[in-house]
């Protein structure tokens, strides 16, 4: 029998003890998931984050053999649901469906109970899509130039809807105001569905909405589309000009979605989720469906998504600074 010197034995024992705390994390990552996973959507039902999170949850449930359950927790421009995830255990069983609302809020809302890049870890992108600027048919404007001219005759009298401060709909409209020289009044709503119903019902005159959700209402004649927000025309509404070509040169704004997890979530779990999300959004049937809706997959590694988020935070910080936008 080989007998190690007492000092060597103690060193080996100390090293073994040092490794013990990592065993549960290693096991949890290897066996993950062992129970249902919750995806919290901090926005209202029926909006893009809710719709695409449910698509993703279905594929993740099939791939990882455990239920991925979507839970909508709207309120305070995404703060309520996001804070709930920030305070959740970093074990991969509570995920956040997020958007550029979150990157905007980093500069727009100073006293949040969390910081995005401190309290969360990027997991994966989902998709991005154009926005469409729509007005109620009662507004006497047939195109964007007519709307701008009409709005300038009624400064502070026309309203636009959003689903809350810092949301892509709010920021797109504020960017439009700044670039077009119009004075429109922001009417925030609790969720995108309420925002949508307000402009369709004529309670507000204008709104920006995701083309993926508003296009059917445009085609049904419930609202009039004045322009889409990307650099190129949308294949979903090809007859609608971009805002840039219709009267506001240089205008561009989109909505994008992604997944984050509480900071401290094991890297092995993050990498597994990233791989499975990317598999799901690359699927031919998913691509075909999203092409028809105007959504484009955001396939990125966690590191690439991290860089994407940081760049977007910087972009909107500049917009907030230059425009003087305030959170209501």
Secondary structure elements and pairings:
Blueprint: H1 6-19, H2 22-31, E1 37-41, H3 48-64, E2 68-72, H4 79-86, E3 94-99, H5 100-108, H6 116-119, E4 120-135, H7 144-153, E5 159-162, H8 168-180, E6 185-188, H9 192-200, E7 206-210, H10 211-219, E8 224-228, H11 243-246, E9 254-262, H12 267-282, H13 284-293, E10 295-297, H14 302-323
Parallel strand pairs: 1-2, 1-3, 5-6, 5-7
Antiparallel strand pairs: 3-9, 4-7, 4-8, 4-9, 4-10
Helix pairs in contact: 3-12, 5-14
Would you summarize the structure shown here?
This protein is α/β, with parallel strands linked by helices and 328 residues long. Helices cover 47% and strands 19% of the residues. Strand 5, helix 8 and strand 6 form a beta-alpha-beta unit.
Structure description:
Helix 3 packs across helix 12 and helix 5 (100-108) packs across helix 14. Strands 1, 2, 3, 4, 5, 6, 7, 8, 9 and 10 form a ten-stranded mixed beta sheet that branches. By secondary structure, the chain is α/β, with parallel strands linked by helices. The longest helix has 22 residues, at 302-323. It has helices at 6-19, 22-31, 48-64, 79-86, 100-108, 116-119, 144-153, 168-180, 192-200, 211-219, 243-246, 267-282, 284-293, 302-323, and strands at residues 37-41, 68-72, 94-99, 120-135, 159-162, 185-188, 206-210, 224-228, 254-262, 295-297. Strand 1, helix 3 (48-64) and strand 2 (68-72) form a beta-alpha-beta unit. It folds into two domains: 35-128 and 255-323, Bordetella uptake gene, domain 1 (D-Maltodextrin-Binding Protein, domain 2); 130-254, 3-Layer(aba) Sandwich (D-Maltodextrin-Binding Protein, domain 2), CATH 3.40.190.10.
């Amino acid at each position: 029998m080989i007998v190690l010197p007492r000092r060597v034995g103690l060193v080996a024992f100390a090293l073994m003890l040092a490794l013990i705390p990592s065993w549960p994390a290693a096991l949890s990552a290897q066996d993950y998931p062992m129970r249902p996973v919750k995806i919290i959507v901090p926005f209202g039902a029926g909006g893009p984050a809710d719709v695409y999170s449910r698509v993703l949850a279905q594929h993740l449930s099939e791939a990882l053999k455990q239920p991925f359950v979507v839970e909508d927790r709207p309120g305070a421009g995404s703060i309520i649901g996001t804070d709930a995830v920030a305070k959740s255990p970093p074990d991969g069983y509570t995920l956040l469906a997020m958007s550029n609302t979150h990157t905007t809020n980093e500069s727009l809302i100073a006293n949040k109970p969390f910081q995005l890049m401190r309290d969360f870890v990027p997991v994966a992108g989902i998709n991005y899509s154009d926005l469409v600027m729509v007005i109620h048919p009662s507004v006497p404007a047939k195109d964007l130039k007519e709307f701008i001219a009409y709005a300038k005759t009624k400064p502070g009298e026309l309203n636009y809807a959003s689903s809350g401060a810092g949301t892509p709909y709010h920021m797109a409209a504020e960017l439009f105001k700044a670039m077009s020289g119009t004075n429109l009044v922001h009417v925030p709503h609790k969720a995108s569905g309420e925002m949508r119903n307000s402009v369709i019902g004529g309670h507000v005159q204008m709104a920006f909405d995701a083309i993926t959700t508003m296009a059917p209402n445009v085609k049904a004649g419930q609202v009039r589309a004045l322009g889409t927000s990307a650099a190129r025309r949308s294949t979903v509404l090809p007859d609608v000009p971009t805002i840039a070509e219709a009267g506001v040169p240089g205008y561009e704004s989109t909505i994008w979605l992604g997944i984050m997890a509480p900071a401290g979530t094991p890297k092995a779990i993050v990498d597994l989720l990233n791989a499975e999300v990317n598999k799901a959004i690359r699927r031919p049937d998913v691509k075909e469906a999203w092409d028809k809706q105007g959504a484009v997959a955001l396939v990125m590694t966690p590191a690439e998504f991290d860089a994407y988020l940081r760049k977007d935070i910087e972009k909107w910080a500049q917009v907030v600074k230059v425009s003087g936008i305030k959170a209501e």
